[in-house]
């Protein structure tokens, strides 16, 4: 008998982003009844150490060990595809994949490819300091022939403020701050930009964003559905 495809979501980074990600899975699946949705197991590990703090301090091993433990838990419970709706954690993606038998969907790699498919040549990356410092988006974009740029220091500080001071604290995020970030990216000649933090995906839920932006969470949600063999909703 063919194995049932089952999506594992390793979340809790943060919890609201995990909830929004699962809702995106539901919204984007072409289903008219319960049985047509993707079987999914969610482990929201809210005790995961902060990824940005770990990367900036160099104390990354506790984060990796906990990510691997959570991923293996989902693997043991029969998940066939793994999604991690946290961009910064993808610093560990290739190393995690090496320790798993199931496929880990690489949100960063998929998003860079999606921007190249759009025909973008200079792409802004809105992300945590940790994600920016690792260079994971810069490398994946370069591999697609796309130049990745980051906000200037003031705009990057505003990005971190929206993520940590607002969304992670249950607020909706400042439109004024986001507008200043948007101006910074456009002044740098960006013809596209990636919401490369799932807290910014939550921001988009509240306020919406212009067509300049690709939401990495959307990319991951759609690939999660396809990877499990389910159809995407077309309208």
UniProtKB/TrEMBL annotation:
Pfam families: Asp_Glu_race (PF01177)
Domain of life of the organism encoding this protein: Bacteria
Presence of the UniProt keyword Isomerase in the record: yes
Molecular-function annotations in GO: amino-acid racemase activity
Keywords: Isomerase
Keyword Isomerase: yes
Protein name, per record: Aspartate racemase
Organism expressing this protein natively: Intestinimonas butyriciproducens
């Amino acid at each position: 008998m063919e194995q049932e495809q089952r999506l594992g979501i390793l979340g809790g980074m943060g919890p609201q982003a995990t909830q929004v990600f699962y809702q995106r899975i539901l919204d984007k699946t072409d289903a008219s009844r319960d049985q047509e949705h993707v079987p999914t197991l969610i482990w929201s590990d809210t005790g995961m150490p902060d990824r940005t703090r770990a990367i900036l301090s160099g104390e990354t091993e506790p984060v990796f060990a906990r990510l691997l433990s959570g991923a293996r838990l989902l693997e043991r419970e029969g998940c066939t595809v793994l999604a991690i709706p946290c961009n910064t954690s993808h610093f560990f993606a290739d190393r995690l994949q090496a320790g798993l038998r199931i496929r880990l969907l690489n949100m960063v790699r998929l998003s860079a490819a999606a921007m190249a498919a759009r025909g973008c040549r200079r792409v802004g990356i809105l992300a945590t300091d940790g994600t920016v410092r690792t260079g994971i988006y810069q490398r994946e974009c370069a591999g697609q022939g796309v130049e990745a740029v980051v906000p200037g220091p003031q705009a990057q500080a505003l990005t971190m403020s929206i993520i940590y001071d607002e969304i992670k604290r249950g607020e909706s995020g400042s439109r004024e701050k986001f507008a200043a970030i948007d101006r910074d990216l456009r002044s740098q000649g960006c013809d596209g930009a990636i919401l490369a933090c799932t807290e910014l995906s939550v921001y988009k839920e509240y306020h919406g964003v212009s067509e300049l932006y690709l939401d990495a969470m959307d990319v991951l949600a759609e690939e999660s559905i396809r990877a499990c063999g389910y159809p995407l909703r077309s309208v």
